Amino acid sequence: MKLHKLALGLLSGALLFTSCSKDDEFIPTQNRVTGKYDGGIFVLNEGAFGKSNSTVSFISSDLSTVEKGIFSGINTDKTLGDTGQSIAFSGDKAYIIVNGSNKIEVVNRYTFESIATVTGGLKNPRYMTIVNGKGYITNWGDGLDITDDYIAVLDLSSNKINSSNTISVKEGPERIVANGNKLYIAQQGGWGQGNSITIVDLDTKSSRNLIVGDIPKGLEIIGNTLFVLCEGKGSWPDPMAETAGQLVTINLATDAISSTLDFSEKKHPNHLQSDNIKLYYTVGTKVYALDPAATGLPTKELLDTSLKGVQSIYGFNVLGDRIYIGDAKDFSSEGSVYFYSTNGGYTGELKVGVSPNSFYWNN
After folding, report:
1. What's the Cα-to-Cα distance from 141 to each of 155, 178, 207, 319, rounded to whole Å?
2. Whether the bond into 237 is cis, omega within 30 of 0
3. What's the CA gap between 229 and 181, in Å, rounded?
4. SS3 per-residue string spanning the chain
């Protein structure tokens, strides 16, 4: 049964992970209508599971101000819903995936005015990537069924999902990225016990699984390489089954594994991001930087967020020359965002909403 997936959903405040997709169609300034939120950073605040208190905060590009609750502030007759999971962008639209409410709120990314609410064809939606006018969304399905996990396909022109046009995948699909007409899906598993990447060829409608490390959590593409950060199995519930993390590289020309870097025993990395020059990941409250061509893992962290009082890194991203850290604190009151430069220097902190889990640059 998939009872473990249901339990994970109920414990989402403590166990869900963050981070954001960099899938985006950049609009040249001369071709777009700008608004209040042009430039700056969106922070998706997950809220508490079952409380329907998800929000989006907006931080100015100079980090001087923060506006909280902008979705309901602009759309006064609506609330964002239960457990904001992730955001994807296409053109002048933002697609906010709300996991607990089984919906996607579509807004203008520059004004945040509501355009549509997508509710059909979604069941525990997680992350989305966009290819040729369609959004591909990972769904866990019913927590009691290990066979119903799937990728929903959203037509961006109509904001409709055809429930008969889904792609079946293994249990617990999470992160999803695209390269050309191929999808790469991290099969983390409902309880975090998966160990593969599903590769879907949209041209041939075929798919296959590539075994990587235990619990693939992060996907980043630099050049012709897909980097897969695998957390490894923790000591709970079975200490004898614990495995260390791995960083796996996949050659996108061949879809074959080209190298694997092993973390030391009982090290469990998280939150893989890149600035297209370096890779960044976390272990506990520490952030590490890695050259993509490196043949070994760094032995010294770039920074330790605990020195500024961070309790846990719940949200993480690297945008431009800044590192953004979200601390959910007690998962019921306002969380904080901490800012660092990519050389490790601390630059400030702002309060946002409950459980800040991801950051998006509205360029």
Report:
1. 20, 22, 19, 32
2. yes
3. 22
4. CCHHHHHHHHCHHHHCCCCCCCCCCCCCHHHCCCCCCCCCEEEEECCCCCCCCCEEEEECCCCCCEECCHHHHHCCCCCCCCCEEEEEEECCEEEEEECCCCEEEEEECCCCCEEEEECCCCCCEEEEEEECCEEEEEECCCCCCCCCCEEEEEECCCCEECCCCCEECCCCEEEEEEECCEEEEEECCCCCCCCEEEEEECCCCEEEEEECCCCEEEEEEECCEEEEEECCCCCCCCHHHCCCCEEEEEECCCCEEEEEEECCCCCCCEEEEECCCCEEEEECCEEEEECCCCCCCCCCCCEEHHHHCCCCCCEEEEECCEEEEEECCCCCCEEEEEEEECCCCEEEEEEEEECEEEEEECC
Name every residue whose Cβ is closer than 8 Å to that of residue 232 and which is 6 or more positions away in sequence: 213, 214, 215, 242, 243, 244, 245, 246, 263, 267, 268
- Banded pLDDT at 143 (limits 50, 70, 90): confident
What amino acid is encoded at 53 in this protein? Answer: N
pLDDT digit string, tens, across residues 181-190:
999 999 999 8
pLDDT at 3: 37
Span of 31-35, 87-91, 218-222, 294-298 with lowest mean pLDDT: 31-35
Mean pLDDT of 136-154: 93
Q: Enumerate long-range contacts of 280-289, CB under 8 Å, 24 or more apart.
A: 280/316, 280/318, 280/323, 280/342, 281/218, 281/229, 281/247, 282/313, 282/316, 284/313, 285/310, 285/311, 285/312, 285/313, 287/313, 287/316, 287/323, 287/325, 287/340, 287/344, 289/342
Query: Would strands 270-274 and 279-283 be described as parallel, antiparallel, or unpaired?
Result: antiparallel
Tokens representing 222 are 């630099």
Nearest to 260 by CA among 239, 243, 284: 243
| Closest among 304, 177, 285, 163 to 228, alpha carbons compared | 177
261 burial type by CB count under 10 A (0-12 exposed, 13-18 middle, 19+ buried): middle
